[in-house]
Task: structure prediction
Amino acid sequence: MGTNTIPPEIVGSALVAIRRLVRTLRTTAVSVERETGLSTAQTFVLQLLLVTPAESMNELAERTSTDQSSVSVVVSRLEAKGLVARQPSPADARRTQVVITNDGIALMRSKPSTVQERLTHALACLPPDSLQLLATELNNLVALLGAGEEPATLIFEDDAPGTN
Result:
């Protein structure tokens, strides 16, 4: 890497903001897990299914901004807990639809806001130009960290204890 002439106070300010963001994400995740027994990723998927069923795993992956294999693992865990069900699509019986069950609906009515909900809402409040700049710079930071090829799994799904 080349020499950097950015003043240390600007780097420090960015580090403080990142620390606050990570802390908020972590404490929200712990709170949701404690109240529901589910990871924030599982709760996020249930929230999306509460709004409308998924016509396929690929469609659900798109709605979660992740990949099909990541969302499939989450759905399998939710299905094992009786919170979602896979069923033939009414539009095309060859496709499998993912729907939230009555138990899943009951759980969602009493849960706190998830990390993804809070983050999505906050991002949506930013002006479009600011959001585009933030996305660009976060992607640049990820690349500089050497994590540009890491899978974009749902937040904390890989390291959530006891959520299998």
In short: The chain has one domain: 8-144. Residues 159-164 have pLDDT under 50 and may be disordered.
